[in-house]
Amino acid sequence: MDDADRLGGVRDPARVRRGRLDRRAGADVRALLVIVIAVAGTLLGISPARAHSDVTGSTPAASSTVTVAPTEVTLTFTGPIRGQFSTVVVTGPGGARFGTGAARAVDRTLHQAVRPLVGGEYTVAWRVVSGDGHPLQGVFRFTADLPGAPAAPPAAAPSEPDDGTGLFLAAAVAGLLVVGIGIVALARTRRKKH
């Protein structure tokens, strides 16, 4: 509010219009700045704090070689997991599945029974829901070098499942880019009207 407003005087319409444009331009710049920071944070991998469980280890350990065949595969997490939503798929040489029965969760550990292993490389793909409701998934490999066990013929390495992170990241960046372009276009059309 300036002196003319306080004294009941008439304001210059050009000054009024210029003041509105300055406020709108400032809002547009602030919105664009928020978008730029969000995109930069996404590209740099900055994310909100993760409060859900993470995997801390497995038996057999990832990338290990076992010489004694395990009867089960276990995964240990930092927090409790929901057993009814858990899945473990153990795939061995030739693409054969070695898991038997359903996976079972006990507090922070997920257990998957396996049938007798043969020599070769194994892939363990798992998916769980943590105690707070967040889904988690991952893949690891181990090798069985079992004395006296028949070695399976080498098979083509299975491709790792896509967890959708790359697609989500690309969609988020594209969405933010579209919003940013929309804000810039809106700011330009408002300036042309006034």
TrEMBL record:
Keyword Metal-binding tagged: yes
Domain CopC: 52-143
GO cellular component: cell envelope; periplasmic space; plasma membrane
Alphabetized SUPFAM superfamilies for the sequence: E set domains (SSF81296)
InterPro entries (UniProt xref): CopC/D (IPR032694), CopC_dom (IPR007348), Cu-Rt/internalin_Ig-like (IPR014755), Ig_E-set (IPR014756)
Any one of the GO BP annotations: copper ion transport
Protein known as: Copper resistance protein CopC
Organism for this UniProt entry: Cryptosporangium phraense
